[in-house]
Target: DNA mismatch repair protein PMS1
Amino acid sequence: ANAVHQIQAGQVIVDLCSVAKELVENGFDAGATAIDVRFKNQGLDSIEVQDNGSGIAAHNYESVALKHYTSKLSNYDDLSTLQTFGFRGEALSSLCALSKFSVITCTQEDAPRATKLEFEMSGKLKSTSVVSGQRGTTVIVEDLFRNLPVRRRELERNIKREWGKVINLLNQYACIQTDVKFTVSQQPTKGKRMVLFSTKGNPSTRENIINVFGVKTMNALIGMDLKLELIPTTGPLDKGKLKEGATAEVRILGYVSRPVHGEGRQTPDRQMFYVNGRPCGLPQFAKVFNEVYRSYNSSQSPFIFADIQLDTHLYDVNVSPDKRTILLHDQGQMLDNLRESLIELFETQDV
Ligand code: ADP
Ligand code: MG
Model:
């Protein structure tokens, strides 16, 4: 049973990014207004995520790290309207199986008396002890993949690339989440801890982008608020999802590099996509942005921060375990519309 648990855990937690993603999303789900992500040795030694959210109530200590335990979904019908990131109850149990795993947590009522929880690999609670702390939860993942030598070696060998990916992902969360103080720091095995970037609990994504990428980057961007009208079709793609007479407006909100003819790089080529505020990869959308942008400046890719806002009946998030992949219905029509709107937006700029 242990080996099976380990294999399944290795499918939920595949790399540094999945650790960071699961822990940060748990912080957001707990209603945190401050999230602090701390790496030691780029995550090879440890990854700690501290939040000031609800904390975990004592009667849940035994169950939180058990497989399929989740407090977030009461029945299956909730899936379509789910507002939280998590709902599978697989992250903590997987991390137990793949690392030295512990939690320090404290609810409002218990503050300043926090509890440190240690778990067995199976997710069974091993010990609790009282420590001091404020409302919130800190999850500590040490020595990731310590019991999967091949995976561990792979991580160490590719650490440069993995590190780049995890920082990009954290940038993505930090930029979209308003009213949350988001801090990321790293400490080398020997040496001082350094803050890599932080947001200040800003009311707007604009200020978040300035905190993360700098005011110079912001000044080279243009705002976008594109409205794509979708015409309900009866083609096989829709599978009845786009009901007759249903309003199917898609809005794309965010920022994109101002197109500049033939000049040097104005912005870092970071491309961040979201669906209803949920970070995800949207390669087909990125392709349209890049193509339209390159008709102005053939040698560069734009900075993109784009939140696709649409009704939940127009997409499925539930297609991949990490929920990074999102299936949009009638994507072809959205992309055609996007291309036209982008050209229109760029045409109104002085280039
Ligand atoms: P899921 O997020 O899918 O519910 P997880 O394995 O990520 O599953 O977490 C299991 C449960 O542990 C959550 O449903 C929640 O009740 C609790 N939990 C995890 N992280 C936190 C946190 N940072 N703050 C409060 N509760 C948490
Ligand atoms: Mg979770």
Notes: The chain has a mean pLDDT of 88. The chain is about 30% helix and 25% strand. The longest helix spans residues 159-176.
